[in-house]
Design a protein that fits this description.
Oligomer: single chain
Largest sheet: 8 strands, parallel
Bound molecules: D-xylitol-5-phosphate, zinc ion
Radius of gyration: 16 Å
Shape: globular
Structural class: alpha/beta
Strand content: 15-25%
Distance between the termini: 11 Å
Number of helices: 9
Length: 221
């Protein structure tokens, strides 16, 4: 049993930014989220965008904006991303020192608080925080780039988190991110994931709208 109906979150990292309005038109705000990948060229070896672009996305869709901060010192930018329109802000455990304080800071802005873990970070490192989270993001690739292959070995973390959630009657969502498509998403759904981030499999498909529909169908039921 999982806690919620599955949610698909197309990642704009793989979208064409020269026509973002058209790209975002495939998203159904009633059931999908929009995933925004912030990268700082320190925590990960890639550089994307900051609050200005999140603010522009905010004007283009009413969907939940799910902002994934792959950056060092994320606490310095939490307020700016919230002001830009983020509904959910997820920071990396590996980038935090006072993790509980950062989660508290996110919630104090009114946003939902998420904590992300790299593939190499063990379940035991994140388990103590699960009662304090709105969302656990289990990276299913090494963070930094779209278009990488799904790592099935990360599913142990998903199922361990799902089991703890059931045992302790917690309500955090479990999100998977990286290499998710209609082929891999059912594996993650079976392990306990609720939210499915998809970049390449949606925006680089010949028909993104059909790809998104296919992904919704792959995790339904
Ligand atoms: C990777 C990002 C992902 C990325 C996923 O570091 O966190 O959100 O957009 O891209 P795909 O779905 O192409 O693996
Ligand atoms: Zn992401």
């Amino acid at each position: 049993m999982t806690a919620t109906s599955p949610i698909v979150a197309p990642s704009i990292l793989s979208a064409d930014f020269s026509k973002l309005q058209d790209e975002l038109a495939i998203v159904d705000p009633a059931r999908d989220w929009v995933h925004c990948d912030v990268m700082d060229n320190h925590f990960v070896p890639n550089l994307t965008f900051g609050p200005i672009v999140v603010g522009a996305v905010r004007k283009l869709t009413t969907a939940t904006l799910d902002v994934h901060l792959m950056m060092e010192r994320p606490w310095l930018m939490v307020d700016a991303f919230r002001e830009a329109g983020a509904d959910r802000i997820t920071v990396h455990l590996e980038a935090c020192r006072e993790t509980r304080e950062v989660l508290r800071q996110i919630r104090a802005t009114g946003a939902k608080a998420g904590l992300a873990v790299r593939p190499a970070t063990p379940y035991a490192a994140v388990a103590p925080y699960l009662p304090d989270l709105d969302l656990l993001l289990v990276m299913t690739v090494e963070p930094g780039f779209g278009g990488q292959a799904f790592m099935p070995e990360t599913m142990d973390k998903v199922s361990a988190a799902r089991d703890l959630r059931t045992k302790k009657s917690l309500s955090f969502l479990i999100e998977v991110d990286g290499g998710i498509g209609a082929d891999t998403a059912p594996t993650a759904r079976a392990a306990g994931a609720d939210v499915f981030v998809a970049g390449n499999s949606v925006f680089r498909a010949a028909d993104p709208r059909a790809a998104l529909a296919g992904l919704r169908a792959a995790v339904a039921g």
